[in-house]
Specification:
Helix content is about 25%, strand content about 25%. The protein has about 240 residues and is of the alpha+beta class. It is globular and about 50 Å long. It starts with 14 loop residues before the first helix and ends in a 5-residue tail after the last strand.
Length: about 240
């Protein structure tokens, strides 16, 4: 069944691109090639049913494939040896997490012009087409606050050499996050649902665990400005 067409996404005016430089948005991946991290967000307090304040978290963990774990570590070594001696996957992952949250919120609000310089141009056009067919509750489920990210792990790593001598590195990042957006059960098969107590009265809020894949690519050709660009965006069950 086709999704109902609600209010479409349109490119916002260029004024937004200027305004966002003065907002308190966290910078994503700096142009020096290393993640530039803002202060960590405050932990959102959850309350117990008795009313006492305590921090409760849904713990999500995965067991990595040993072969993939060894292979990706070899690629990290190659990146440090031949491309960027200061590269650290831990720092990159933190920067990617901030980028994921920032870009997902822009997608949810259909602020596509604000994605320029962060997301590949050809990908922005494809995202616009998909968002125009997406109902408002699905768009809300795209938005991710930093504290809603439950688990982050690197995926595939690639090193590419073009025939013209250009050099590229790509890193796929996988994220699992909680959302309170109301989503139909029949289209969300396979996702996990949690009851989380919030507020002083301990009222329960239903949250669903969703996943997303973002691929980051950087060109290391001599003379090219150092910048990581998002070349792939997938939100499982929402934006494939």
């Amino acid at each position: 069944m086709a999704l109902p067409v609600l209010r479409g996404c349109h490119r916002v005016s260029s004024t937004l691109k200027i305004t966002r430089l003065f907002l308190n948005e966290s910078p994503v991946l700096n142009r020096g090639g290393r993640p530039r991290l803002p202060p960590p967000p405050a932990q959102r307090p959850f309350s117990s049913p008795a009313g006492g304040q305590q921090n409760q978290k849904v713990v999500v963990f995965g067991i990595p494939n040993p072969f993939i774990w060894v292979r990706t570590r070899m690629y990290y070594f190659l990146i440090r040896a031949y491309f960027d001696k200061e590269f650290r996957i831990e720092e990159f992952s933190e920067g990617a997490k901030q980028a994921f949250s920032h870009v997902s919120r822009l997608l949810s609000k259909c602020q596509l012009d604000a994605l320029e310089g962060l997301v590949a141009k050809d990908l922005i056009g494809k995202l616009e087409e998909k968002l125009n067919l997406m109902p408002s509750n699905y768009k809300k489920a795209l938005s991710v606050e930093p504290e809603e990210i439950m688990y982050t792990t690197p995926g595939d790593v690639g090193i590419y050499y073009g025939d013209d001598g250009r050099k590229f590195v790509s890193i796929l990042m996988r994220f699992w996050y909680l959302t309170s957006a109301r989503l139909p059960e029949d289209t969300m098969e396979g996702t996990r649902v949690f009851q989380v107590a919030l507020g002083e009265e301990g009222e329960a809020e239903t949250k669903r665990l969703l996943s997303a894949h973002y691929e980051f690519q950087r060109e290391f050709t001599e003379g090219v400005a150092p910048a990581w660009t998002i070349t792939k965006i997938e939100h499982s069950k929402l934006l494939d």
